[in-house]
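PROTEIN DESIGN WORKSHEET
SECTION A - STRUCTURE
LENGTH: 183
TOKENS:
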């Protein structure tokens, strides 16, 4: 049996479908979707595993950090792009390395698989944020074409995160001074 010839209408439809897929699946949207999935994966896994009453502090911090990076990416902030990318590369490498180094020491294959997948996703997301040329082009294009309210929202968001970091640092300094005075 021979192949039938593709008609001109079918060819145009295939080209149009490919163009729509290429537009939708640009690196910027992939990075946003991947970051959203990371936040949901961290929060959802621990909610399912231990419930809300015993939700680990580390999971709250990790998912909160991921959500902050997600909002920073949505607002096209350079600070959150680069800091998030470096942090994601470090987190991903750490998750992959600890999973690999503890391989065979525990009998919890589900947890090992979860941390390996999580590390791989963090690593790929960080690589896209830092090294992807299509991401950089799309990021810059969206940043230059954004509305004034999004620019103001980005400024407020960066200031709010900066204030939150200063408050957390001040609390840590007060705690360390208190520990030093007790000893």
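SECTION B - SEQUENCE
RESIDUE ASSIGNMENT:
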């Amino acid at each position: 049996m021979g192949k039938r010839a593709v008609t001109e209408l079918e060819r145009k439809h295939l080209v149009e479908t490919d163009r729509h897929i290429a537009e939708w699946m640009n690196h910027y949207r992939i990075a946003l979707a991947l970051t959203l999935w990371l936040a949901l994966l961290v929060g959802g896994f621990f909610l399912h595993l231990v419930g809300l009453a015993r939700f680990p502090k580390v999971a709250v911090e990790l998912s909160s950090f991921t959500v902050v990076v997600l909002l920073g990416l949505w607002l096209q902030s350079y600070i959150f792009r680069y800091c998030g990318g470096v942090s994601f590369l470090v987190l991903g490498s750490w998750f992959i390395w600890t999973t690999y180094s503890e391989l065979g020491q525990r009998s919890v294959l589900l947890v090992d698989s979860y941390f390996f997948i999580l590390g791989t996703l963090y690593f790929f997301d960080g690589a896209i944020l830092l090294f992807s040329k299509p991401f950089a082009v799309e990021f810059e294009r969206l940043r230059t074409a954004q509305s004034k309210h999004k620019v103001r929202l980005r400024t407020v968001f960066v200031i709010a995160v900066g204030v939150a970091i200063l408050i957390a640092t001040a609390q840590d300094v007060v705690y360390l001074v208190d520990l030093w005075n007790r000893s």
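SECTION C - NOTES
The chain has two domains: 8-146, 148-183.
The two ends are 87 Å apart (CA to CA).
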